[in-house]
Amino acid sequence: MNQLGLQLFTNPLDEEIVQGADLAALIVRDFELADGDIMVVTQKVISKAEGRVVSVDDDDQESFDALVRSESRRILRRRGTLAITETHHGFVCANAGIDRSNTDPGTVTLLPVDPDRSALRLLHQLQYRTGLQLGVVITDTFGRTWRSGVTDIAIGVAGLQPIADLRGTRDHNGMTLQATEICIADEIAGAADLIKRKDGRTPFVLVRGVDRSHLGHGSIGADVVRGYAFDLFR
């Protein structure tokens, strides 16, 4: 029997995040970090700290649609008020990732301009304060094509190789794997979401026990977002 050593920790946040908030200071205050830890942070607090909050008129669908278009590279599908879009980051999601939940009435949050850069900035701040080797994963809740339900996925990473490439290795029957690439970043995001409640004010999750071989350099934009040449559906 193999025992998985993964541990997940979270703490409710007792304050609202506003533009300019020092997220690294809050994390160091509320968590006892150790070498090799991965800090998972929700997109919502990153966007709030970076000032990616805009006012909307809940009764003006046209202005909301215009906001969706401005945050999108293109609209892929539309049904009623729901648009499936490709964002400027290359993410395919509902309404360009614009989120009305857990924000003040009459406001929405936009995705960070560059989630990988946001993750790297936070990582540098955490490492400066602690001197530890860490990883940062920024997450958001996405639906999946052909599957009901939503889950958290990684939209930005730093200090972590988001893909474990097993191509060229062998399975237990000795067959060479031809196409197996595991998205470690998304697996961490999904695991962290297990202990976050949508109404629990828990934007930070400390994930401990991830194999240190996954630490390193990488990004969601370069390593995870599938390019057009490999996409059979766009």
Task: Please summarize what this structure is.
The protein is α+β, with helices and mostly antiparallel strands and 234 residues long.
Annotation keywords:
234 residues, alpha+beta, 12 strands, five-stranded mixed sheet
What Rg is obtained from the alpha carbons, in whole angstroms?
18 Å
Mean pLDDT: 92
Q: Which word captures the global form?
A: globular
- What strand order characterises the main sheet? 1-12-2-8-9
Number of strands: 12
- Which percent bin holds the helix content? 10-25%
Count of DSSP-assigned helices: 6
- Strand fraction equals 25-35%
Listing every helix as H and every strand as E from the N terminus to the C terminus, the arrangement reads: EHEHEHEEEEHEEEEHEH
Q: Structural class, from secondary structure content?
A: alpha+beta
Q: Main beta sheet, described?
A: 5 strands, mixed
Distance between the termini: 43 Å
| Regions with little confidence, pLDDT below 50 for 5+ residues | none
Q: How would you explain this protein's 3D organization?
A:
It is a single chain. The chain has 234 residues and is of the alpha+beta class. The protein contains six helices and twelve strands. The chain has helices spanning 23-30, 43-49, 61-70, 115-130, 184-193, 220-223, and strands at 7-10, 38-42, 53-55, 72-79, 82-87, 92-94, 107-109, 135-144, 147-158, 163-165, 181-183, 204-208. Strand 5 (82-87) and strand 6 (92-94) form a beta hairpin. It is globular and about 60 Å long.
